[in-house]
Amino acid sequence: MFLKLLKYDLKSIYKPILILDIVMVFLSTLTVLTAKNFSPNNNIIFIGTVMFLIIATLVSALATVSIYIFNIFRSYAIGIYGKDGYLLNTLPVTAKQIVLSKISSAFIMGIVTLFFGLLCIPIVFTLMSTDIVYIINRLNNNIQNLNLFLFAVMFIIMFIVSAIYTIVKIYALISISSIAKFEKFKFAVGIVIYILTQLVERVFLNLFISYITLDNLAIQNISLYFLSYLAFYLIVGFIWYYICVYLIDKKLYVQ
Question: Origin, by domain of life (predicted)?
Answer without folding.
Answer: Bacteria
